[in-house]
Amino acid sequence: MSVLLGAIEAGGTKFVCVVARDAATILAERRVATTTPAATLGAVEDFFATVSSEMGALSAIGIASFGPLDIRRSSPTYGHLLATPKPGWANADLAARFATRFACPVVLDTDVNAAALAEALHGAARGCGVVVYVTVGTGIGGGIVVRGRAVHGALHPEMGHIRVLRHERDRERSGVCAFHGDCIEGLASGGAIRARYGAPLDRLPAGHEAPEIVGYYLGQLAATIVLMISPERIVFGGGVMNNDRVLPELRSTAARLLNGYLPFAKWPSSLDELIVGPGLGERSGIVGAITLAEAARI
Amino acid sequence: MSVLLGAIEAGGTKFVCVVARDAATILAERRVATTTPAATLGAVEDFFATVSSEMGALSAIGIASFGPLDIRRSSPTYGHLLATPKPGWANADLAARFATRFACPVVLDTDVNAAALAEALHGAARGCGVVVYVTVGTGIGGGIVVRGRAVHGALHPEMGHIRVLRHERDRERSGVCAFHGDCIEGLASGGAIRARYGAPLDRLPAGHEAPEIVGYYLGQLAATIVLMISPERIVFGGGVMNNDRVLPELRSTAARLLNGYLPFAKWPSSLDELIVGPGLGERSGIVGAITLAEAARI
């Protein structure tokens, strides 16, 4: 009998759920709106139960979720969301009902750790031992994969909250992060862009300064990642990166800051290979969740 | 027959060499001045040969070296120094003559990666899965250990070169780093302190502002490490940290920057456990080299 895996990409607006044989073979898919934990998790459970009644028992379930999330395997609250600002979801247990109902292992990780894993195994960072994935969307977060596994540590990376230097033409408003003001998320996230310019990047006129300024902040993050972790590849995904001026601006700022110091990160050729867009597009989260389920089965 | 390991801590002023059974059992030790590669490496070879003639063949040799260093196992120049400013040492091959003479595996890593390994296995970070070690001496560098092994990636971490915000009372001189000016090494290393104040920290009068300013820069690095990697412990070692005001200033800056965002990094109790001094003192480099030799033997 073939293996059957459940996978969930849990997001702030929707949960993407699939049943799959492996990362390349998705058999069924459903999207569920993120409302309350009871309603959303219940609908996901119903989907898995329906598919399972037709196809057989699930071997494992992988969940890639927004955070902050308790991913310490030894913790009594493993699989719980922590102090998320998302109303009703703080302390929600994402794992228990699935483990009980389907009597199979449930493995969770953050959406960005899962996306890093997916890009490292199946996407733009295949063959790389040290990989960083950064999503630039409503918020900014990152995940790190070393030798095929996500790095957890005390919690999980929260690299969107690193402070950056202000752009010389962007000094008047403070950043929107409630904790840090001028951190990267506070200055370059989708939320920060809407607060500053009144619209997302794709609604601003051609030639607008916003992609340059956003790229300047993200380039500081990229340079810091390169110096801190020495990754073989950094993948930048998320909605803000869909603007095609952001990645070149980001690379050019990173090159200027690194200033030729590192032979593997010189402008332009090696930086173009080091800092890239996602190979899996918007599928890296759900592919990562499938990968988590595959690993759980072993 | 018991195992016999050679280990070298290769530094800019001296090479510390030992023959050991394991990290806790050192049988012989010698210090050799760092002059030319031929003279220094020759003297180290003589020491190993003498001890080996009395005690038996070496099973493996571990080398913890200053950098930048080629530590990619698959590289044709594995074990060579790269573009170090140390006269005569650029492109020096640290590994080949030992491998040839003693016919045993030779494993190299950077001094800070080796120190991170030593602190993770035998020192202040025992039991931690994700560990960062930072040395603050003539220069500033860091190493990362994940699940018992150092993280290499494209090269190795160069976290001393991350840019930082200037302290409000330290705006006049630029930092001393030839590549980046105002990076952490350019502002808070032993070299930067001597350039700015004309003396090392331990020769400045009590109550001098220098430890506060140095701690401010190092605290930015600590906060960035916490957000980027989520380590369970960060160990700060090196000569500058011998000043007992630096670590408290560093922690207090990190706490201010993190601003209570991370439950595991709140001021003061959990930050005092997260950010610590070395458990092995000045021995972390050589203990790390022994650990590299132990791993090479497996």
- The structural class of chain A is alpha/beta
Instruction: Give unreliable regions of chain A as ranges.
Output: none
CA(first)-CA(last) distance of chain A: 16 Å
The major β-sheet of chain A equals: 5 strands, mixed
Report the principal-axis shape of chain A.
globular
Short summary:
Chain A is α/β, with parallel strands linked by helices. Chain A has helices at residues 37-55, 96-102, 111-122, 184-188, 190-197, 210-229, 246-258, 269-274, 284-297; strands at residues 5-10, 14-22, 25-33, 60-65, 106-110, 130-136, 140-146, 149-150, 233-237, 275-276.
Describe this structure in words.
The structure is a homodimer of 298-residue chains. The first copy, chain A, has 298 residues and is of the alpha/beta class. The first copy, chain A, is 35% helix and 19% strand. The first copy, chain A, has helices spanning 37-55, 96-102, 111-122, 184-188, 190-197, 210-229, 246-258, 269-274, 284-297, and strands at 5-10, 14-22, 25-33, 60-65, 106-110, 130-136, 140-146, 149-150, 233-237, 275-276. In chain A, the strands form two sheets. In chain A, strands 3-2-1-4-5 form a five-stranded mixed sheet. In chain A, a hairpin with a 3-residue loop joins strand 1 and strand 2. In chain A, helix 3 packs across helix 9 (284-297) and helix 6 crosses helix 7 (246-258). Chain A is globular. The A-B interface holds A 82-83, 129-130, 142, 144, 146-147, 149, 151-159, 161-163, 165, 179-180, 220, 223-225, 227-232, 257-265, 274 and B 82-83, 129-130, 142, 144, 146-147, 149, 151-159, 161-163, 165, 179-180, 220, 223-225, 227-232, 257, 259-265, 274.
